[in-house]
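Q: What does the assembly look like in three dimensions?
Context provided by user:
Components: two
Sequences:
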Amino acid sequence: MSENQQNEALQLRLRAALRRVDPGEGFAPGVMARIAAEPARTARPARAGAVAGWLAFGLAASLVLAALLAHEWQARRLEQGREARRQLLEALRVTDEKLNLAYRAVNSQERAASAEHSGA
Amino acid sequence: MSCSRWRWLLAPVATLAASVALAAPPAMLNLPDFDALARKATESVNISLDTSLLGLAAGFLDSSNPDDAATKELIAGLKGIYVRSFTFDQDFAYPSAQVDQVRRQLAAPAWQRLVQVSNSRDRTHVDVYVSVDRGVANGLAIIASEPREFTIVNIVGSIDLAKLHRLEGKFGIPKLDLPPEGRDGKDGKSDK
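A: Here is the predicted structure of the complete assembly.
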């Protein structure tokens, strides 16, 4: 067999092997069914979703806790401030009362001394 | 163990002790706890307001209210207010030892007695001291003993007594209707 004849025979065999073949009506549903039946491909997104869910829950819980702590701190600060104000006014009241006590005593002594002086 | 081994500690400890002593304001008295008095008293007032608590209290005074604004102005120069007051249901139920402990701290030259009055009729005794540092009053102490009441007030910082007097009749500070100074007249009785 000559070289040309061998080439032609090879081309014929290749054309025969690479001819267009209709896959048939069941091909596409078959492929889809196999994709749906693949367990490994669906498990990964589910796990990632669960982690994201827990992260979101943790974040929300942290925010709620922080808001509660801030509210508690503010309430305590308000209470301390009101108590400090009450104590301040009470302290000023006592101070003024005792200064007036001293003032009255000094005045009373002065009056007694002047009465004694005018009497003599 | 040789003492010289610890000698290196002396300098830092002395420095620390000095800084602690400096940290306490000079006009601040070391008030005893008065536990014995508190147990006998029918009514006790124990107030300790340091700089931070005074600042906190000032934050709760409304500057748009004239009375609050006056109080704010009054306490602006203060570093502390300490009050111990005890009321009893019997005459002179309180021991003098703890009072003397306070009096001993009120010594010259740091403290000067401004007023010492005794009223034999009312059986009251009031001492007013001021703490003076380089010619500037930076503290006030009042020791008032009455038959059924004993009070110590220690104010640290400069306080304007005239401003305090102007607050009379406000916030429960009693209005005493004292007679005008230097004028003869009826006795200035409290209308409490």
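Follow-up: The mean pLDDT of chain A is 85.
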